Amino acid sequence: MEEVGLGPNGGLIYCFEFLMENLDWLTEALDSLTEEYLIIIDMPGQIELYTHIPILPTLVKFLSQSGALDIRLAAVYLLEATFVVDRAKFFAGTLSAMSAMLMLEVPHINVLSKMDLIKDQVKKKDLKRFLTPDVALLDDDPLERSRRITEGPEGEDDESVPPDEKSQVMKGASFRRLNRAVAGLIESFSMINYLKLDVTDEDSVGGILSHIDDCIQYHEAQDPKEPDDEQEYDEAD
Question: Which spans are transmembrane here (predicted)?
């Protein structure tokens, strides 16, 4: 990427643009796979790919359109469960998830991953509130209460500083208004629900896979298997 003067994010976009110009290579790699295969495309986390750059929506349409490939697609958006500790960060991540849903326009599953990391930090009854996010989560945010106590009067808005100044937006009343606006937008769309994923729990992993199967209608695509009439079964004595 040094040759073209691009950083990590710019280089990633450049690579995707190169892929879009050479889709024959991708078609050749996937064309031989039958419907019995479950293809997992592990995507990078750079959010610009899912928000305002139309590369991935174009790729999704290419993979799913009727023709050579005609792949049934589903998007699985992973948000680390550690985000629930900081509710402002959680709503920012949820906004990104909603943006990806709107951009990709395919069956979509949102997952709170790494649940095993917060077992001792968040009670189960409190965690349920994050599965369907709403503005009320900001009303009793323990981290925000801690911020107010720590910052004191200095944490409030400074009227001598322009309201769009970064230092002003990211603290005090301005920061709280921003978080509430983001949370209100998410709640008004009412599109986001999360599933929990704990990789140390086999049932948790199986539940996620089951939801993915339903989204892509995996079992419906399988040909029914006829019983083997010639197979002999041992009868119990």
Answer: none
